[in-house]
Structure formats: C-alpha cells, structure tokens
Design brief:
Elements lengths: L4 H20 L7 H20 L9
C-alpha cells in the first residue's frame, strides 16, 4: 500500500494537535499559550512528516 506524503502529514498533524488539545483541556480552560502550543504541534508535525522521504523498497 502506498500512502502519499501529504496524507501522512495530515494524519500526523491531527494526532499531534489532538494530543496537545487533550493535555490543554485537562483543567477545563484552554489559554492562549495552550492554543499556540496546539498550533505549533500541528504545524511541526506537518512539516517534519512531509519533509522526511519514504524509505525506498529493496529487492529481497
């Protein structure tokens, strides 16, 4: 199965953003700093996942 870099980046961004959101919502209030942290988690996951190339298949 071949998954595009964009699809993997989107999924990783959702995972990072939701993890940050769950952590931020533990006290029942999301502050501006926590919102920025969530946004940076999503953007960082998108960028890193999109930039790292897939491993090439080897003939074995």
């Amino acid at each position: 199965m071949r998954i595009s870099s964009i699809a993997k980046a989107i999924v990783s961004g959702i995972a990072a953003g939701s993890a940050a959101a769950v952590t931020a919502a533990q006290d029942g209030v999301i502050t501006t700093g926590e919102g920025v942290t969530m946004a940076l988690a999503v953007l960082g996951a998108w960028g890193i996942t999109y930039a790292v190339p897939n491993r090439q298949k080897t003939d074995a």
